[in-house]
């Protein structure tokens, strides 16, 4: 299997953490790609020109983080996910989406983008998502899966790219984040 990714994509990190946690570390060839420069390898794999892309052993290119994570979960023999686990995955993906959208808008339009209607909506969504995640009993589960990894990656991405968003008022999220960052899969994939 190949995983097309870049170092700072929270989407790619979530897929990579899931692959490592599912036991595919030895089988996973990392293909570093730059979606901002029309990387020909990435374009050949996925015309949408975004990471991550998982190339299966059969040569099928899978895109979209949730689909990649679900595929890896099932390939590793993971059990079907409950609606609560899927809800958690959606909340984690939503946190990543809102944070990433904020970062990209600022990169291309400056901090003034936060004052736009879309910018304000993204920032408000981050606040609401943090509050909802802090109330989720699913975070406390001992049997982790990609839903948990998405949340932890989203929190770590906030700390990495948007440190001015202080989420320390959510003690359950802080404890959850610290617990997951201690795992080897998170240490091996840290943002740089």
Automatic annotation (TrEMBL):
InterPro entries in the record: Glutathione-S-Trfase_C_sf, Glutathione_S-Trfase_N, Thioredoxin-like_sf
Designated name of the protein: Glutathione S-transferase N-terminal domain-containing protein
Top-rank taxon, per record: Bacteria
Record domain GST N-terminal: where: 1-80
The species this protein was found in: Pseudomonas benzopyrenica
Pfam families in the record: GST_N_2 (PF13409)
SUPFAM superfamilies attached to this UniProt entry: GST C-terminal domain-like, Thioredoxin-like
């Amino acid at each position: 299997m190949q995983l097309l990714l870049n170092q700072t994509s929270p989407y790619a990190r979530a897929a990579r953490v899931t692959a490592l946690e599912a036991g595919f570390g030895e089988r996973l060839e990392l293909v570093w790609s730059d979606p901002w420069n029309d990387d020909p390898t990435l374009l050949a794999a996925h015309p949408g020109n975004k990471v991550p892309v998982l190339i299966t052993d059969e040569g099928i290119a899978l895109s979209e983080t949730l689909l990649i994570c679900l595929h890896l979960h099932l390939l590793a023999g993971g059990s079907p996910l409950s609606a609560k686990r899927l809800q958690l995955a959606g909340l984690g993906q939503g946190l990543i989406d809102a944070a990433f959208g904020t970062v990209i808008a600022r990169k291309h339009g400056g901090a003034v983008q936060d004052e736009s209607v879309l910018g304000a909506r993204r920032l408000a969504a981050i606040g609401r998502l943090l509050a909802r995640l802090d109330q989720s009993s699913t975070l406390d589960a001992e049997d982790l899966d990609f839903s948990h990894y998405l949340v932890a990656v989203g929190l770590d991405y906030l700390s990495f790219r948007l440190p001015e968003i202080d989420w320390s008022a959510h003690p359950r999220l802080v404890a959850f984040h610290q617990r997951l960052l201690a795992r080897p899969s998170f240490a091996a994939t840290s943002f740089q």
